[in-house]
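Feature request, filed as a ticket because there's no other form

It would be nice if the structure record came with a short human-readable summary line next to the tokens. Right now we just get the raw output. Example of a typical job, pasted below so the devs can see what we mean:
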Amino acid sequence: MSGSLAGLRRLASEKALAHVESGMIIGLGSGSTMGDVFLPLLAERIRAGLIRNVSLVPSSRQIEFRILEEGLETTSFNQIDHVDVTIDSADLVERESLTAIKGGG
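Raw output as currently delivered:
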């Protein structure tokens, strides 16, 4: 697959957004792709009214801070009984087994 790393990160984030719907409880992973690419795209759609009434559950203080920087609210694990979808990034995913290697996030 060709393309810049930034372009691939954006493409992956846009594809992940296709799994997010209004009313969902969304778990958010940590790391640079989540904080720098996915979250701003999600926030843009929320502000535009394309996605509504979502609860954002951060997996770390790092992503919680980024959520708040985007002007969005977080939900604690203590306030929910399930998560509808969790979005996270990985450094490497093996196609057949979906075994993933996580980096810094």
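Something like this underneath would help us a lot:
Residues 58 and 64 are 5 Å apart (CA to CA).
Residues 5-101 form a domain with the Rossmann fold fold (CATH 3.40.50.1360).
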